Structures are given as structure tokens and as C-alpha cells.
Amino acid sequence: MATVSFDKATRIYPGSEKPAVDSLNIEIEDGEFLVLVGPSGCGKSTSLRMLAGLEDVNAGAIRIGDRDVTHLPPKDRDIAMVFQNYALYPHMTVADNMGFALKIAGVPKAEIRKKVEDAAKILDLTEYLGRKPKALSGGQRQRVAMGRAIVREPQVFLMDEPLSNLDAKLRVSTRTQIASLQRRLGITTVYVTHDQVEAMTMGDRVAVLKDGLLQQVDSPRNMYDRPANLFVAGFIGSPAMNLVEVPITDGGVKFGNSVVPVNRDALKAASDKGDTTVTVGVRPEHFDVVEHGAADSLSKDSDAAPAGLAVSVNVVEELGADGYVYGTAQVGGETKDLVVRVGGRQVPEKGTKLHVVPRAGETHVFATSSGERLTD
Ligand SMILES: Nc1ncnc2c1ncn2[C@@H]1O[C@H](COP(=O)(O)OP(=O)(O)OP(=O)(O)O)[C@@H](O)[C@H]1O
Ligand SMILES: [Mg+2]
């Protein structure tokens, strides 16, 4: 077991000027499960491959424990990698696939057999040890690939989208198995996925990458509660956080007929930068519904317009326990799309209007120009 550190690690592919991974700094603790997540092409696989020794590091360093492995060949790094396509040998049995690396390393046969059997027990593969990979289901093949990594007892596991070939249901159950297996073995793990739900459910910490640049490394909770910038705010969470640009007014921001109080320091920081607007983020579950009715009845019958922001309900997704309302609202003179979570028993009809108010203390404020977070 060991710590892993990326120390300003940079990869520039030949023929390219822009780094695929740019000065990556992450300190991974001994035994930690760290997930690298981000959109396609952001540099996740490149980062993992640099750690594996499959990709040159053009600047900076990579350390495993106190060893500088930046220029070591893969075989000397004491890591085991699980790939998306599993890369099993088709002509070998499950047992031989799992034990192959040990055989190459000259480990005695009886010892290999013991390690393979132990791993098979953990992974529920005992009855398949004599089979060839083609006679296994996708999920079983995935477990064989895991078994091959486990028997080597490496200092670090590296996994690049190991669940992407599985169907949705199997993916959910396998991600729980991998996470609990990792906790049991306590082996430092770096796991790559483009799926933010996978990242949030599996990782002790999550690192979000965009265009080769690290945006934030944090626990799933902090990543959700305090996204460091607009990119992370929009990327983490499903459905995504509502982000609306609003003019800075004294002491708050106007949401329809309500003024949502916003930390003065945040607004001052924005105007000090020369911004005249801020971007306010509200997660779908952080709106309170203050009134609900038919599209035309609410607005005309009273002098006092209802509080909050009027959202026209366009689409309703009923999920049982709760529901998501996809609607539009006038914010700052523009029509904005918004998503509001409602209780499963209070789902509004399409074509009606909901009046919502962002819950106090649950709004996020970002600088419109730089995207950085302004609230604590
Ligand atoms: N061998 C290569 N030569 C040149 N450019 C490459 C090479 N491999 C990757 N790239 C580029 O480097 C960038 C990062 O690629 P990388 O494979 O690390 O992305 P990723 O985050 O793993 O994406 P995905 O989610 O699609 O797997 C991309 O712009 C890609 O086009
Ligand atoms: Mg990749």
C-alpha cells in the first residue's frame, strides 16, 4: 500500500502544443479510492496512463510512496491496471488468466493456485475457474479482470472505465462490489470514469478535470455542496444545478418577485472585478414551491402578485418518490430553462404554473466572468 502523488505532472502529445494533462497536482492518501472524472477528452486516461508508465511525463513528477516513478517502466511500478475491455486471454481458462502475471514472475505453482482460489472466492468466481472467457457473462469477465489485478497484491490499482461494457443494472451492482472490495483490501485506487454518478458514489474523493486542467479535488459531499466553479457546479449533480445570470442589486439578487439575499462580500467581490452580474446556482431540490395553479388564474386575480419566480411547467418527470419539473421562467428579462424537484405526491400538471423561491442558504454564487465561486 502506498500514497500516490501527481506533482505538476504534464503530458504534451507529440505534434500538439496544448498539454493533454496540464500541471496536474493531486496527493492521494494511502488506501484512498480516488475517482478522476470529466467529459470526454479532458485527460483522464492520459493521467492514469502516466501513473501506469504507459505514457511519457513531459514535465513534473509522479511518486508512489516515497519512490519517484516518473521514468520507471510499468513493470517496476508495482501497480495493476483494469481496462475497459478487460483484455483477457481468450485461449486461457479463468484460473490461468488470473494467475498469468504471477506465472511470468516465476511464482511457484502451488502459491499461484492458492492466490487465485482466494481471489476467486472474494469475487464469487470459484465455479468458473476452469472456463474460458467466452463462456462467461460480461459481469463475470469484469470480475476476472479484477481478480487478475487482485492476485498481484499491488501497491496501487488503476481502473479505466471498467464498468462501461456492462448494462445499466449490472453497472450499479458492480460499482458497489468494487467499492466495498477496495475498502476491504485497502489498496490505494485511482479510478477513471466519465459518469459523475459513479464518481460520487464510489470515491472517497473525486477529482474533476476539464481540458487537461484540474478543477477541484474534494469529497463527494463537498463537491456537491460547494462546487469551486461554474464548470463543476454544472457537471456534478443530476439533473444539473440551475445556473442563472442576474444583475447585482443591493444586498441580494432578484428572482421574479422575490429578492434572494446573497452574501454582501460575494457581491462586492464580483463588482470589484468589474462584473455587473453574478451567476446564481440553485439545485433542483433547493426550491420551495410557494404557490401552484392554472397558467392564467394566478397572475390576474390579485393585486399582490405571488411571491417568487413563476415557472411554466413544460415537462414533468415522475420518479415515484419525487418528480422533476422542467419549465421556463423569466429571469432578468430573459426566458430561462429551470428544473425543480417536487414531492412524488405533489407533481403539477403540464401547462400549469409553479411559483418557487430558492431556499435561503442554499444558493451558490459564481463570478460570471471567471466562473469562480464567490460564496463560502
Ligand atoms: N496518443 C495520443 N496522441 C495524441 N493525442 C492524444 C493521444 N491520446 C489522447 N490524445 C488527446 O489527449 C486528450 C486527452 O485524451 P484522454 O484519452 O486522456 O481523454 P479522456 O478524458 O480519457 O477521454 P474519454 O472519456 O473519451 O476516454 C484528448 O484531446 C485526446 O485527443
Ligand atoms: Mg479515456
Automatic annotation (TrEMBL):
Keywords: ATP-binding, Nucleotide-binding, Transport. Residues 4-236 form the ABC transporter domain. SMART domains: AAA. The keyword Lipid metabolism does not apply. The keyword Signal does not apply. One of its GO terms (molecular function) is ABC-type transporter activity. GO terms for cellular component: ATP-binding cassette (ABC) transporter complex, substrate-binding subunit-containing. Pfam families: ABC_tran, OB_MalK. InterPro entries: AAA+_ATPase, ABC_transporter-like_ATP-bd, ABC_transporter-like_CS, ABC_transpr_MalK-like, ABC_transpr_MalK/UgpC-like, Mo/tungstate-bd_C_term_dom, OB_MalK-like, P-loop_NTPase. PROSITE patterns: ABC_TRANSPORTER_1, ABC_TRANSPORTER_2. This is ABC transporter ATP-binding protein.
